[in-house]
């Protein structure tokens, strides 16, 4: 398919890039599509549940509303993290924040798997929905990783802070490689451990973290090179390795 040529307006024209916000404004928008191959372990459970939920919502509800609402479900817990303990959970009294982040992640994942079927159901699928959906996916899953690290108090020491930052960077590399591959293959391949499974694992870990005292994560896990590493450090290293390996495999 030939790539359309755009005529550049003068820089002072505020509508120069208005076509980016339109689903049907350019000829190639109406034929835009991509293929997906989902090998997720939770797909047999997630897919029928989300399709059933979509059948219950009205036709007038915009898919974008589901996309945005899902990601917005994570905002209250992220705001609480920044307000009460910006360097990580340091009190068992804040266990509810970890639970709120886990629940918000589940809500986001469910609504995120509903917006596509709703778009196809209402015949409103388009390139803008694709862009918005996947952009918020990056941000929302990164927020889940951040909440996971926060619940272990990784920001309270230099080593934990560095490992947490590297784990977040590894997450971004993994999702970028997925969509970089799509650019050349025109197919999005989701492996056995994908978004649904990541939310299940991260959410479960946050629920578990809410049941243990902060001292659990600061207890020594192992010593290497004369440096003592806490349990939270060990989990962060494992997360970093898994996400980094995932990026390389994809």
If you had to describe this structure to a student in words, what would you say it looks like?
This protein has helices at 43-54, 63-72, 75-84, 95-121, 127-150, 158-185, 195-209, 214-218, 231-249; strands at residues 35-38, 187-190, 220-224, 227-230. The chain has nine helices and four strands, in the order E-H-H-H-H-H-H-E-H-H-E-E-H. The protein is mostly helical. A hairpin with a 2-residue loop joins strand 3 (220-224) and strand 4. 60% of the residues lie in helices and 7% in strands. It is globular and about 60 Å long. Helix 4 packs antiparallel against helix 5 and helix 4 runs antiparallel to helix 7. The strands form two sheets. A two-stranded parallel sheet has the order 1-2. A two-stranded antiparallel ribbon has the order 3-4.
Mean pLDDT over the full residue set: 79
Separation of termini?
26 Å
Structural class: mainly alpha
What profile does the largest beta sheet have?
2 strands, parallel
Silhouette:
globular
Q: Give start-end ranges of low-pLDDT stretches.
A: 1-12
Q: How big a fraction of the residues is strand?
A: 5-15%
Main sheet: which strands, in order across? 1-2
Radius of gyration: 21 Å
Q: Helix share of residues?
A: 55-70%
Number of helices: 9
Order of helices and strands: EHHHHHHEHHEEH
How many β strands by DSSP? Answer: 4
